[in-house]
Hints:
The chain is an alpha/beta fold. Helix content is 35%, strand content 14%. It has a single domain (2-372), classed as Alpha-Beta Barrel (TIM Barrel), CATH 3.20.20.80. Helix 4 links the parallel strand 4 and strand 5. The longest helix has 21 residues, at 136-156.
Amino acid sequence: xxxxxxxxxxxxxxxxxxxxxxxxxxxxxxxxxxxxxxxxxxxxxxxxxxxxxxxxxxxxxxxxxxxxxxxxxxxxxxxxxxxxxxxxxxxxxxxxxxxxxxxxxxxxxxxxxxxxxxxxxxxxxxxxxxxxxxxxxxxxxxxxxxxxxxxxxxxxxxxxxxxxxxxxxxxxxxxxxxxxxxxxxxxxxxxxxxxxxxxxxxxxxxxxxxxxxxxxxxxxxxxxxxxxxxxxxxxxxxxxxxxxxxxxxxxxxxxxxxxxxxxxxxxxxxxxxxxxxxxxxxxxxxxxxxxxxxxxxxxxxxxxxxxxxxxxxxxxxxxxxxxxxxxxxxxxxxxxxxxxxxxxxxxxxxxxxxxxxxxxxxxxxxxxxxxxx
Length: 373
């Protein structure tokens, strides 16, 4: 992994096949009006969890998680990529190996570039350490060449992504501070757009059939955000939104109306790129849970297996109703993140009560709701 990442970094720093820092005219993707409703799972933790010899079950029978997912109607698997992580997890080497399994299982592959060595979200978008200190022109070249090199590696291994997300929850931009934006009127939007277009340009050149997703968290900021992208003639295919009720509001009707408005305004399909919901408020390890109390739930959907399933059914239905022309889908984040380090771990999973597998690692009803509703 280190040698592979090192090669990519060197390529970026030397700006091989330089982009000359100009976005240029976008490469227009093939025109198509055919969209498959994404029923997705983000299984980025699965390779790490597998190293602990954890297995998953369906009706008490142990099966590979991809086999379970496909049997339930899931059609897409999302994986995050970190540039040079501290461990092998979320590395290009790990992703490439797992993407081969995803493709072999007949599932679509969705690549989520974080453009960081670690977690990237609205509150943290740190540059890869190898890019610290670069001037803006070289940073643009590095982003372009890194994106291109990753996609070429995947292409050469017959695992070209079906979907490419050029930055994770980039409400506040990415590659801070050069690409940082803290509001719709931030003076740095121009620099953010220049960087974003480099990632998009590289993606179009290597994977012209891949759908490009621009992903933010929540919907309150969406109108202003995507208006700025539209005004800058940004070339992308899908609007991606994270929706966690305890962070983004508990009114599913408001979510539906906002999705409808966003899709109509920007004439783009809208995807719930991340979501999750509790099936219990109990714990299966000693790690504090992010949504570990009843106030995190919507009153109409209690934190029970049935409540979780009903929430997913309603959410899928809301997306379908809101985006009638190009309805696009729902992806569940970290359904695999069970208490894999054991029941006494204080550094285990903060998400096991939000998983789509119960505390015995049996598939929950909500997985059927996502795959078949």
